[in-house]
Amino acid sequence: MSAGEIGLELRDVSVQFGGIHAVQGVDFSVAPSRVHGLVGPNGSGKTTILNAICGFVGSDGEIEVGGARIDGMGSYGRMRRGLGRTFQNPRPARELTVRDLLRIGEHDRKAQPWWQVALTPRAADRALRESNERASRLLAMVDIGPGLLEQQLVNLPAGVLKMVDIARALMGAPRVLLLDEPTSGMNDVEIDLLHAALRELSGDSLTILLVEHNLRFMFDICDSMTVLATGRVVGHGTPTEVFQREEVIHAYMGSSTASVHESRPHPVEPSAG
Amino acid sequence: MSTFIQAVVAGIAAGAVYGLLGAGFSLAYKTTGIINFAHGDIAMLGAYVTFSVFGWGAPLFVAALAGVVAGGLAGAVMERGVLRPLYKRPLVAGILATVGVSVVLQSVIQLVWGSLPLTLPSLASSTPWRIGSVAFSPAQAVLLAVTIIVSTALIFAVDRTRVGRGMRACAQDSGVVVLFGISPERLYLTAFAIAGMLAGLAGALITPTIGLTPSRGVSLSVLGFAAAVLGGLGSVTGAIVGGIAIAVLRNLASVYVSAGYADAVAYLAIVLVLLVRVRGLLGDDLETVRSV
Amino acid sequence: MPATGSSQRSEEAAAPAAAPLAEEHAARHARAARRGLATILGDRGVPGRQRPLLTRLIAVALLVQVVPGLVSGPNLLTLNLACVYAMAAIGLSIVFSLGGFVSVAQAAVMAVGGYILILLFGPTVGFPVALLLAGLGGALVSALTGIVGARVKSHYFILISLALAETIQLVITNATSVTGGANGVGLKAPASVLGLDLGLPTDYFRFITILTFVVIYLADSLRASRAGLALRAQTVDGYLALAAGVAIGRYRIMATAIGGVFAGLAGGMVAIRDGYLGPQNFGLDTSILLLLMVVIAGTGRAGSVVVSALILTFLSQGLLTLTSTGTLIYGMGLIVLIIFAPEGLGGLPRLARGALGRLGARRAGTASDDGGER
C-alpha cells in the first residue's frame, strides 16, 4: 500500500495503565472510503484504542492519519489533522442547544476570533448562517428536521442525542471518523438511518473506524474488521472471514461454547439490543 | 545554624495547629467536596467559648473541651442548616454559602464578645527550655503532643471504623455508601461535626499565641485550606504534614527573606508544589476520571 | 419527553428537507441585506445572534441623560461603585462560567489595574493611555493564574488564586516606597476624558456607564462567538471539547486574560472615583463579593451580572458599614439568597413565569400549556 491510500494506520500501538497493558502491539490500517470495525468482548481494549488515537490516553507506537504521523501530538493537533470522534454516552451539556453543539463541532474548521462578533457583526452573522445551513444539511441526512436545532440537548431522547453527536463530529469535516458504540440507545429505525448515512459518508472518501456491540450492524456495514481479545489483535479480515474463524469465536464466546462453533456468521446478538 | 534550627522547631509547633485546622478542613472536603471558608471562624468561636468558660472559673483544660464542643456544634448546625439544601447544586454554591456562614459567625462573635482583642492563657507555661541555643517551651510541647494524639486517633478512625470508611467511599461516589447501609446525610453531618471539633480545638490551642480578634478567622481558614491543599486534599496525614511545612516555610522565610513577605514565600512554595505534583504531597487522586 | 423529538422527526421528509431549507436561509439572507440596518438592529432571523446594538445604544443614552438628574449625593457614589464592581464581576463571570475557574483573586487583579493607573497617570501619561495600561496589567496578572490553573485541578485553583491575592496584598502593604503601603497613594492629577470631568460624580457616572456597556457588549460577544461556545462546552465536558479540536488550555488562559482586562479597567476606575487607593480597597472580602455577584446572577448574560452587582453593592454598602448587626443581616441574607434562588437572579424571571403559567393554566381549567421549554 502506498501512503496515499491509507486513511488510518496503527503500527504496534500499546497503552499501559499503571503497569497493566490495556492494549498491546495493535496493528491495522484502513483505506479511505472504508469502514473498519473493531470487535471483541468487553475489556478487550476497543474504546482504549479509540482514546489512544485521539490522544485522550498516552500510547506507544505509531499512528498515522492520511499518511502523516499524529502520535506525539496533543488531542487538539490530532483533531486538526482530520480526526473526528463520537462518544458512547454523549453528556448532554446543560443550557446548550443542538445548534450550539454543532457549532462547537465546527470549531476548528475555520478560525473565528471572538472579537469578530463584536467588531464585524455582519461577517459573524454570515459565518453563523453558513454554519446553520451546514448543520441543517447534516441533520437532514439522518432525517432530523431543522426544528430540532433549537432544542436543548438535555431534552433529547438517547438515540437522537447519539445522532446529533455524530453530526457534531461531522461538522469538523474529518477525514477519519471514530465511532464509539453509535447504535447503543438507538431504535431500529434510527439504526437503519445511521446505516444509510454512514454508507453515504464513506462513499464520500471518509474513513470510518467503528467500535460496536451490535454485531449484526457490524457485519452489514464493515468492509474489514480487527478482532481483539485482552488488548491484543487475534484476527483481521472481512466480516465473513472473521466470523468463521475458530479463534475469533473462541475469543468472543469464551471456551465452553462448543455449540457455537458450527454456527454461521454474526452468531451473537447481544441480549441488551 | 541555630537560627535555622530555632525557626524549624518553632515552625513545627505552630504548624501542628495549622495541621489540625487542615485536617478538619480536609475531612469535610473529603466527604462533601465543599471548601469550608467558615472553618477558621469556627476555630475562633471555639477559642472565644474557651475564653468565656475559663473566665467563669473552670480549669483551662475543661474550658478548652467546651470550646471543642462549641466548634462541633457549630459545624453540625452549619451542615444541617446551610449546606444540606445545597448538595445537589454546583459546588460553588456550597462554597459561597460557607462564606456567608463565616460572615455570620464573625458578626455573632462581635456582638457577643465585642471587637476588642482579648487574650487567653495557654495550657502550659511558655517559659522556654533551652537545649543549646534552641528554645522550646512546654506550651509548644503541649501543642505538639495534642496534635499527635488527636491526629493519630483521627487517622485510626478514618481508616478502621465503618463511618470512616464510609467517608472515604463517599468522596468517590456518594451513591455507593447507601449500598453499605450508611446514609450519606449522616456522614456529612458527622464529618462537619468532627471538622468543627478539630477547628474548636485548634482555636483553643492557637489563640494564646495569636490573640482573640473576631476577624482573625479568615486568616485561619486560609491557613487550614493551604495546609490541606499542600498535603493533598482529602488526606489527614497530608494536612498535618502540610501545616507543618507551611509554618516552617513561613518561619524560614521571615528569617532569611523578609518578615513582610513570609506568607508570599509560603504561597509561592505551595503553587510550585501543586505544579510539580498536582495532587499535593500525600493526596490520593480523588477526581474520578470520566469513562469516555 | 421522547415524544417531542420523534414527532418532529417524523414530520420532516427525509432527503428533500435540505433543499427548501437552504432556500429559506438564502431568502432570509437577502431580506436582511435589503434592510441594511439589519446588523445594527440585530437580525432576529439568524438564531444565535445577540441582542441588537441599537437598543443598547439607546439605553446608554437614556441612562446617561436621566440618571444623574435623579440620583445624587452618596447614592450616586454608590451607584458609581456598583458600575465599577459590575465591570469586574462581568470579567469574573467570564473566568468562572467560560473558563471554569473559581477565582478569589479578582479584587487583587483590580488592585493591579488600580495601582498601575494611579502611579502612571499624571502630566506625562494621559488618562486614556493609563486606563488602557491598567486593563493590560490586569490581563497579564489574571492570565498568570490561568497559566498555572490550566495545569492543576479545579479545587486547587481556588488556593492558587488565593495565593495570588494574598501575595498582591503583601506587595502593596510592604512596598511602601511605591504604593504608600497601608497609608495608600493619591491621584496626581484630576482626570477628564471626552469632555467629562471625572472628578464630578455625575460626569463619572456618564463615563462609567458607557464603559460598562462596552464591557457588557464585549462579554456578550465573547459568549456568542464560537470561542465562547467552545469554552462553555469545555466547562461541562472536557473530552467533548477535545474531540471538537478545542485547544482547551489556550482558551482557558484567554478567558482569564479577558476577565483580567475588565478587572484592570475596573481597578483603574476605583482609583479615579476615590482619588486615592489603599490595600483595603481590594481585600479578600471584595473578591468574595464579586464572586457572589456572579453566582447570584446565575450563569446568565452580562446584563444579569450588572443587576446583581447593583443589588449587592447597595446591600453591602448599606449593611457592612453599619454595626455588626448589619453584618449579621448581610451574612444571613447571602445564605438565604444562595439557598432559595437556585439559578440566581437569572432564574427568578423563569420561576415567576412558571408560577404565573401554572396560575393561568389553573384559571383556564387546562394544564396543557405549561410552556414548551420544560
Roughly what fraction of the amino acids of chain A lie in strands? 15-25%
- Structural shape of chain B: globular
Q: Enumerate the strands of the largest sheet of chain B in spatial order, edge to edge or round the barrel.
A: 1-2
Helix content of chain B: over 70%
Main structural class of chain A: alpha/beta
CATH class of chain A: Alpha Beta
- Radius of gyration of chain B, rounded? 19 Å
Can you write the helix and strand succession of chain A as a string? Answer: EEEHEEHEHHHHEHEHEEHH
The tally of structural domains of chain A comes to 1
Rg of chain A, alpha carbons: 19 Å
Q: Helical region count of chain B?
A: 11
**Any idea what the shape of chain A is?**
globular
Going by helix content, strand content and strand pairing, the class of chain B is: mainly alpha
Q: What ranges of chain A have pLDDT less than 50 throughout 5 or more consecutive residues?
A: 255-273
Helix content of chain A: 25-40%
End-to-end Cα distance of chain A? 37 Å
Just give the CATH class of chain B. Mainly Alpha
Short description:
The complex is a heterotrimer of chains A (273), B (292) and C (374). Chain A is of the alpha/beta class and 273 residues long.
Task: Give a verbal description of the structure.
The complex is a heterotrimer of chains A (273), B (292) and C (374). With 273 residues, chain A is an alpha/beta fold. Chain A contains ten helices and ten strands. Chain B has a single domain, classed as ABC transporter involved in vitamin B12 uptake, BtuC (Orthogonal Bundle), CATH 1.10.3470. Chain B contains eleven helices and two strands. A two-stranded antiparallel sheet of chain B has the order 1-2. In chain B, helix 3 crosses helix 8 and helix 6 crosses helix 8. Chain C has a domain of 230 residues. In chain C, strand 2 and strand 3 form a beta hairpin. The N terminus and C terminus of chain C are likely disordered. Chains in contact: A-B, A-C, B-C. Chains A and C meet through helix 2, helix 3, helix 4, helix 5 and helix 6 of A and helix 1, helix 2, helix 10, helix 11 and helix 12 of C.
